[in-house]
């Protein structure tokens, strides 16, 4: 989780009027906002792709305000499409294998019998990404 660090001593906390959180410019119902060690935190449990956003924490009191923006990216493991992966081809014919990966940002490599496949005049790796 990300922390919005606004530190207040007990004296300053007395004058704190409002701390607000925003996601992509829209105010968040901050029921998950907590004071931990004198710092305001917004905790998001079980983050998902929908939580990726620009978050803003705004602290205001009688004498002014302070803003902190945080950009949150959600990382997830690559996922393969579930399809039949058995190929048959006649000898001397071209064989094309696809890696059915759903995440276009993932890095991948080819292996043959647990050894890396070497690119040559006979073997090519073609990458096409759908962004």
Automatic annotation (TrEMBL):
Q: Which GO terms describe its molecular function?
A: axon guidance receptor activity
Q: Name one GO cellular component term.
A: neuronal cell body
| Residue span(s) of domain Immunoglobulin I-set | 23-73
Tell me the Gene3D superfamilies matching this sequence. Immunoglobulins
Give the coiled coil ranges: none
Task: Name the InterPro entries on file.
Answer: Cell_Adh-Cytoskel_Orgn, Ig-like_dom_sf, Ig-like_fold, Ig_I-set
Q: What is this protein called?
A: I-set domain-containing protein
This protein's UniProt keywords: Disulfide bond, Immunoglobulin domain, Signal
Q: A GO term (biological process) for this protein?
A: synapse organization
A Pfam family of this chain: I-set
Q: Name its species.
A: Nippostrongylus brasiliensis
């Amino acid at each position: 989780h990300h922390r919005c660090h606004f530190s207040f001593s007990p004296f300053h906390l007395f004058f704190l009027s409002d701390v607000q959180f925003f996601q992509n410019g829209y105010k968040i119902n901050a029921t998950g906002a907590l004071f931990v060690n004198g710092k305001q935190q917004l905790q998001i449990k079980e983050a998902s792709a929908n939580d990726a956003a620009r978050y803003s924490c705004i602290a205001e009191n009688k004498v002014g305000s302070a803003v902190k923006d945080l950009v949150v990216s959600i990382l997830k493991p690559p996922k393969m499409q579930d399809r039949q992966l058995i190929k048959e081809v006649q000898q001397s014919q071209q064989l094309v294998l696809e890696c059915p990966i759903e995440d276009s940002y993932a890095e991948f490599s080819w292996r043959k019998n647990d050894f890396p496949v070497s690119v040559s005049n006979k073997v090519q790796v073609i990458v096409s990404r759908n962004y």
